[in-house]
Amino acid sequence: MENIGTLTLIVLVLAAYRLTRLITADEFPFGGLRDRLHGRWLGKLITCPFCMSVWVGGFLAVGQGIVGDVWGWQVFTGAMAISAVVSLLAALAPHSFD
After folding, report:
1. Which DSSP symbol is given to 79?
2. How far is CA 6 from CA 3, 10, 12, 37, 87, in A?
3. 53 contacts: CB under 8 Å, gap ≥ 6
4. Which three-class secondary structure state does DSSP give residue 24?
5. Peptide bond into 94 cis (omega under 30)
6. What is the DSSP letter of 31?
7. Whole-angstrom distance, CA of residue 91 vs CA of residue 61
8. Cα 71–73–75 angle (5° rounding)?
9. What percent of the chain has pLDDT over 90?
């Protein structure tokens, strides 16, 4: 596997953050699954961000190694990275949407 650039690494880290958050904490699409698996070993895995981030990071690393230059992969990881930045910025902003 060849070395990846700094920008690609940043995108992958942000994508890993967003995917981990999506699986472990966001209500959609995994909220119902987390409720059904509550108390089981798989339920513990998908509610633990540290545990899940290992699997998500592994998936992203393998995906980058296999299809890193494919347009669809770049769109997927880029969209996740943008979503991560937006969610972090939204958490800092005062909530005036009520």
Report:
1. H
2. 10, 6, 10, 38, 22
3. 16, 17, 20
4. helix
5. no
6. H
7. 27
8. 70
9. 62
pTM of structure: 0.86
Helices 6-24 and 71-92: angle between axes, nearest 10 degrees: 70
Is 64 a residue whose pLDDT tops 60? Answer: yes
Measure the CA–CA gap between 58 and 74, rounded to whole angstroms.
Answer: 17
The token pair at 33 is 């699954």
In this predicted structure, the answer to whether residue 98 has a pLDDT above a threshold of 70 is: no
Please give the distance of CA 32 from its chain centroid, rounded to a whole number.
18
Token pair for 18: 């967003």
pLDDT (tens digit, 9 = 90+) per residue, 36-54?
888 888 888 889 999 999 9
Nearest to 77 by CA among 9, 3, 11: 11
